[in-house]
Amino acid sequence: MNDQSQSKTQTLLRELPSVDRLLNTAMAVDMMLAYGRSLTVESLRHSLDTARSAILSGEARYAPMNAVLVDEARLWLEQFLAPTLQPVINGTGVIVHTNLGRAPLSQAARQAIDEATKGYSTLEYDLASGQRGSRTVHAEQLLTRLTEAEAGLVVNNNAAAVLLMLTTLCQGKEVIISRGQLVEIGGGFRIPDVMAQSGAKLVEVGTTNRTHLRDYAKAITENTAALLVAHHSNYKIIGFTSEPTLAELAQLAHEHNLLLLYDQGSGALLDSSPYGLEPEPTVLDGLAAGADVVAFSGDKLLGGPQAGVLVGRQELITRLKRHPLARAVRADKLCLAGLSATLTHYLTENALTEIPIWRMITRPVAEIGEEADTWAARLQERGIRAEVVVGRSTVGGGSLPGTSLPSRVVAVQHNDLEHLAARLRQEKIPVIGRIQDGRFLIDPRTVLPEQVEILLQSLVNCAAE
Q1: Residue 432: strand pairing partners
Q2: Is the dihedral of CA 198, 199, 200, 203 positive or negative?
Q3: Which of 216, 221, 218 is nearest to 173 (CA)?
């Protein structure tokens, strides 16, 4: 840098205002009212540091005006404070999309959660006695009525449910499981790791594709506590396969005074086969077959909030409730409120119309096609190259692997599909679709009704070339 350039740089640096001077501007005063003094000062310092770096690198020919510095500080602060957890429009056709929050809640469930947040509640208070109560009673009556189990317990997710079940009932003992069920699900959750953490000793029997009842029988010892079955909820073994039924395993376990523990996983309470999907074993099926405790998720095919649910024999569920680990994995009032409202839909026989994922699963393809035609026509009117093509929707969420539902999707053509997808993700309410066969696809099945107009406007904003 020559002397003239160095002199110019020093002049520009001196022209930069102080933080105090910027704080006295009207815009900064408004920022302090909205965000407080501390964060406002931090954002102004960041803005000044950025301007100073630009001057020193030779990128800036002029010192920015005060208004520009304050505006940049405001933008930085807005980005810093913007929530990382935000709503999106799911146009992927994956109904229970784990990365997008799994099951959207029904209006009744959302209202129940809202009511639980407004003030105090009877979370652990018994109105009849005026004494401390237990949060474990919430949702239990609904669970036992729906599943015909003797007792139930809600924890914060199904991984916690399985961990609590094994820790309480099998710690220091052997648990027999088929090699074909040593599953890993999303996020690295592995059945063997959970069993090790619980203190139970894993005993593998059979092979990946074939396990016989005699394999379980031969593995039983004096130190065996239970047989464990993990439902194939997120994978499928096809070809030369076999494994005992739950009823057969229950009979074997009970003949040896052992427990049959069942990780059902998906939380299905309804038969999925009438709606074009493969049959999914339900929680009721597991209990009817003789399982002593069944564990499942609340936010998969049950359609409720994130939760782990345990149902089964009274004496066993009571032991789970009393274990010290139960406090560490207990559900909060928001979960219990939303889950109770969701379970009520099943009891009142309106789950298919009120629970969003079941509304999506059961929606007729003809109705989806009509909506897709309307969307495509409206986009075409705005100059967007769009058409309706045949597509497939999936259940997702580690449920019903390899099965899908026929759908009709809106296919948008664009010169730069990756750029289009990126722009849609930057919308105020991001739009998530999928790129396939040289087109950007949106499946109406997974778009909530209240999001349609926002979706179409976003496509117009971002797809115009």
Answers
A1: 90
A2: positive
A3: 221
Helices (H), 271-332: 283-289, 314-322, 325-328
Separation CA 122–CA 333 (nearest Å): 9
pLDDT tens-digit map of 349-389: 999 999 999 999 999 999 999 999 999 999 999 999 999 99
Alpha carbons 333 and 138: distance in angstroms, whole number? 9
242: domain CATH number? 3.40.640.10
Residues near 420 by Cβ (< 8 Å), separated by ≥ 6?
412, 414, 440, 462, 463
How deeply is 101 buried, as exposed, middle or buried, from its count of CB atoms within 10 A (0-12, 13-18, 19+)?
Answer: middle
Q: Are residues 152 and 121 in the same domain?
A: yes
The DSSP element (H or E) to which 264 belongs, if any, is: strand 259-265
* Both tokens assigned to 83: 């929530």
Q: What is the DSSP string of 418-434?
A: HHHHHHHHTSSS-EE-E
Residue 425: count of CB within 10 angstroms of its CB:
13
Are residues 38 and 153 part of one domain?
no
Q: Do 209 and 302 share a structural domain?
A: yes
Nearest to 138 by CA among 347, 355, 333, 349: 333
Choose among 451, 146, 163, 142: nearest CA to 330.
163
Structure tokens at 139: 């949702």
Whole-angstrom distance, CA of residue 291 vs CA of residue 99? 31
CA 431 to chain centre: 17
Long-range contacts of 40-47 (CB under 8 A, 24+ apart): 40/73, 40/77, 43/73, 43/74, 43/76, 43/77, 43/80, 44/19, 44/69, 44/70, 44/73, 45/19, 46/73, 46/76, 47/72, 47/73, 47/76
Q: Which residue has the tokens 């066969």?
A: 437
**Which tokens belong to 309?**
């649910």
Q: Give the predicted TM-score (pTM) of the model.
A: 0.90
Residue 170's domain spans which residues? 105-354
Q: What is the pLDDT of residues 374-428, one digit of tens each?
A: 999 999 999 999 999 999 999 987 667 668 899 999 999 999 999 999 999 999 9
User: Do 63 and 142 belong together in one domain?
Assistant: no
Regions of the chain where pLDDT drops below 50:
none
Residue in this structure with the two tokens 């509640």, named with its chain if needed? 121
The pLDDT assigned to 57 comes to 87
State how far the Cα of 27 lies from the Cα of 291, in Å rounded to an integer: 66
Beta pairing partners, 152 = 311
Minimal CA–CA distance to 236: which of 274, 181, 301? 181
